[in-house]
Amino acid sequence: MDLYTPILVLGAIAAAFAVGSVGIAVLIGPRRYNHSKLEAYECGIEPMELSDPAKQATGQRFPIRYYLTAMRTHGEVTECHGNIDFRRSHPVCRGRMFSHSTQLAVGTEERHRLVSVKPRGNGSEYSLVYVQVNGES
Questions:
Q1: What's the pTM value of the predicted model, to 2 decimals?
Q2: Residue 90 CB: number of other CB atoms within 10 A?
Q3: What is the pLDDT of residue 29?
Protein backbone atom coordinates (compact mmCIF):
# COMPACT_ATOMS: atom_id res chain seq x y z
CA MET A 1 0.00 0.00 0.00
CA ASP A 2 2.92 2.35 0.68
CA LEU A 3 3.87 2.14 -3.01
CA TYR A 4 0.50 3.48 -4.14
CA THR A 5 0.21 6.33 -1.62
CA PRO A 6 2.07 8.94 -3.77
CA ILE A 7 -0.12 8.05 -6.79
CA LEU A 8 -3.34 8.36 -4.75
CA VAL A 9 -2.19 11.69 -3.29
CA LEU A 10 -1.31 13.00 -6.76
CA GLY A 11 -4.74 11.85 -8.09
CA ALA A 12 -6.52 13.56 -5.19
CA ILE A 13 -4.59 16.80 -5.80
CA ALA A 14 -5.44 16.69 -9.54
CA ALA A 15 -9.15 16.06 -8.85
CA ALA A 16 -9.26 18.85 -6.22
CA PHE A 17 -7.56 21.24 -8.68
CA ALA A 18 -10.04 20.39 -11.47
CA VAL A 19 -13.13 20.76 -9.27
CA GLY A 20 -11.74 23.87 -7.58
CA SER A 21 -10.94 25.55 -10.93
CA VAL A 22 -14.43 24.99 -12.27
CA GLY A 23 -16.01 26.11 -8.99
CA ILE A 24 -13.98 29.31 -8.83
CA ALA A 25 -14.73 30.12 -12.50
CA VAL A 26 -18.46 29.74 -11.87
CA LEU A 27 -18.35 31.91 -8.74
CA ILE A 28 -16.15 34.79 -9.89
CA GLY A 29 -16.31 34.52 -13.70
CA PRO A 30 -17.96 37.23 -15.84
CA ARG A 31 -21.64 36.88 -16.65
CA ARG A 32 -22.19 38.59 -19.98
CA TYR A 33 -25.57 37.32 -21.10
CA ASN A 34 -27.24 39.17 -23.93
CA HIS A 35 -30.14 38.56 -26.25
CA SER A 36 -28.08 37.27 -29.18
CA LYS A 37 -26.24 34.68 -27.08
CA LEU A 38 -29.50 33.24 -25.81
CA GLU A 39 -31.14 32.97 -29.28
CA ALA A 40 -31.28 29.76 -31.27
CA TYR A 41 -28.80 29.64 -34.14
CA GLU A 42 -30.48 29.18 -37.53
CA CYS A 43 -27.73 28.89 -40.14
CA GLY A 44 -26.90 32.58 -40.28
CA ILE A 45 -30.45 33.74 -40.91
CA GLU A 46 -32.21 36.00 -38.45
CA PRO A 47 -34.65 33.81 -36.48
CA MET A 48 -38.29 34.84 -36.22
CA GLU A 49 -39.27 36.46 -32.93
CA LEU A 50 -42.13 34.40 -31.51
CA SER A 51 -42.84 37.04 -28.88
CA ASP A 52 -43.87 39.57 -31.54
CA PRO A 53 -47.55 38.85 -32.42
CA ALA A 54 -47.32 40.67 -35.75
CA LYS A 55 -44.42 38.53 -36.98
CA GLN A 56 -45.95 35.40 -35.49
CA ALA A 57 -49.11 35.85 -37.55
CA THR A 58 -47.49 36.81 -40.84
CA GLY A 59 -44.05 35.22 -40.65
CA GLN A 60 -41.15 36.60 -42.61
CA ARG A 61 -39.58 35.97 -45.99
CA PHE A 62 -37.01 33.19 -46.02
CA PRO A 63 -34.45 33.17 -48.84
CA ILE A 64 -34.88 30.25 -51.24
CA ARG A 65 -31.13 30.15 -51.84
CA TYR A 66 -30.83 28.38 -48.46
CA TYR A 67 -32.63 25.34 -49.90
CA LEU A 68 -30.94 25.76 -53.28
CA THR A 69 -27.50 25.54 -51.64
CA ALA A 70 -28.51 22.61 -49.42
CA MET A 71 -29.96 20.63 -52.33
CA ARG A 72 -26.84 21.08 -54.49
CA THR A 73 -25.14 18.45 -52.34
CA HIS A 74 -27.50 15.89 -53.97
CA GLY A 75 -26.89 16.92 -57.60
CA GLU A 76 -27.98 19.50 -60.16
CA VAL A 77 -30.99 21.49 -58.95
CA THR A 78 -33.86 22.44 -61.27
CA GLU A 79 -35.63 25.66 -60.27
CA CYS A 80 -39.12 26.04 -61.68
CA HIS A 81 -42.04 28.46 -61.48
CA GLY A 82 -44.77 25.94 -62.26
CA ASN A 83 -44.85 22.14 -62.39
CA ILE A 84 -41.94 19.71 -62.45
CA ASP A 85 -41.96 16.49 -64.48
CA PHE A 86 -39.29 13.83 -64.76
CA ARG A 87 -37.96 13.04 -68.23
CA ARG A 88 -35.05 10.69 -68.84
CA SER A 89 -34.29 10.42 -65.12
CA HIS A 90 -33.93 14.13 -64.40
CA PRO A 91 -36.38 16.91 -63.48
CA VAL A 92 -37.81 19.11 -66.24
CA CYS A 93 -39.64 22.39 -65.63
CA ARG A 94 -43.09 22.90 -67.13
CA GLY A 95 -43.52 26.55 -66.29
CA ARG A 96 -46.75 28.46 -65.93
CA MET A 97 -46.96 32.12 -66.81
CA PHE A 98 -48.44 33.46 -63.57
CA SER A 99 -47.29 30.91 -61.00
CA HIS A 100 -46.53 32.43 -57.59
CA SER A 101 -44.79 29.33 -56.28
CA THR A 102 -41.18 28.31 -56.82
CA GLN A 103 -40.23 24.66 -56.88
CA LEU A 104 -36.79 23.10 -56.58
CA ALA A 105 -36.09 19.50 -57.56
CA VAL A 106 -33.01 17.29 -57.55
CA GLY A 107 -32.53 13.59 -58.20
CA THR A 108 -34.15 10.98 -60.45
CA GLU A 109 -37.74 9.85 -60.88
CA GLU A 110 -37.13 6.95 -58.49
CA ARG A 111 -35.39 9.01 -55.81
CA HIS A 112 -35.74 12.77 -55.60
CA ARG A 113 -36.14 15.73 -53.27
CA LEU A 114 -38.62 18.57 -53.80
CA VAL A 115 -39.02 21.97 -52.16
CA SER A 116 -42.01 24.17 -52.92
CA VAL A 117 -42.14 27.79 -51.75
CA LYS A 118 -45.26 29.97 -51.94
CA PRO A 119 -45.60 33.58 -50.74
CA ARG A 120 -48.05 33.93 -47.88
CA GLY A 121 -48.72 37.42 -46.52
CA ASN A 122 -45.37 38.86 -45.43
CA GLY A 123 -43.92 35.35 -45.09
CA SER A 124 -43.55 32.15 -47.06
CA GLU A 125 -45.09 28.68 -46.97
CA TYR A 126 -42.70 25.76 -47.52
CA SER A 127 -43.24 22.13 -48.44
CA LEU A 128 -40.34 19.70 -48.28
CA VAL A 129 -40.64 16.22 -49.80
CA TYR A 130 -38.27 13.27 -50.21
CA VAL A 131 -39.52 10.52 -52.55
CA GLN A 132 -38.03 7.06 -52.93
CA VAL A 133 -39.83 4.54 -55.15
CA ASN A 134 -39.17 0.84 -54.53
CA GLY A 135 -40.04 -1.91 -57.00
CA GLU A 136 -42.07 -1.74 -60.19
CA SER A 137 -45.42 -0.02 -60.52
A1: 0.49
A2: 15
A3: 84
pLDDT along the chain (137 residues), means of 10: 91 98 91 69 54 50 76 86 75 73 83 83 78 69
Domains of the chain, residue spans: 5-31, 58-132
Cα–Cα distances in angstroms (integers) from residue 121 to residues 15, 61, 82, 114, 127, in the given order:
59, 9, 20, 23, 16
- State the Cα–Cα distance between residues 109 and 87, nearest whole angstrom: 8
**Residues in a beta bridge with 105:** 78, 114
State the pLDDT at residue 137.
47
* C-alpha span between 109 and 88 (Å, rounded): 8
3-state DSSP call for residue 58?
Answer: helix
Separation of alpha carbons 6 and 75, rounded Å:
62
- pLDDT value of position 42: 54
